[in-house]
Amino acid sequence: MPRPPLPAPVEEMLAQPNFATISSVRPDGHPVSVPTWYLYENGRILVNMDAGRKRIDYLRNDPRVSLSAMDPGDWITHVSLQGRVVDWVDDEGLVDIDRIARHYTGQPYAVRDRARVSAWIDIDRWHAWGRLKHVR
């Protein structure tokens, strides 16, 4: 799997509001994978979670993560990333989740009564398939 920097076509795809899943590792070693929204900014991935999610505990315990972003119109075209959470930020005022929600829906995030946490992911390796298969 190639290492960053990512080629421009891969960055362009990641900048879109793609379907995505994020995977982490539970303390017992089992993987956990869930759908997620994300933003790709400055070579890193931003994800945001409800502060009560167990995934936060899993990622604080083991910051390794995998994220796969799939083109909504052609799910075979996807980019899979392996990396690690390198920075945690309390999402004061829901600024990050609003940016992410606007990216996907054009609207601010609807749930306003729950604390949220942002995690920045550094990309260690990546893989692309479909129309990006031969991009390096």
Automatic annotation (TrEMBL):
All residue ranges annotated as the Pyridoxamine 5'-phosphate oxidase N-terminal domain in the record: 10-129
Sorted UniProt keywords: Oxidoreductase
UniProt entry tagged with the keyword Calcium: no
Domain of life: Bacteria
InterPro entries: F420H2_bilvrd_red/Heme_oxyg (IPR052019), Pyridox_Oxase_N (IPR011576), Split_barrel_FMN-bd (IPR012349)
Record's keyword annotation contains Hydrolase: no
Listed name of the protein: Pyridoxamine 5'-phosphate oxidase family protein
Species of the source: Intrasporangium calvum
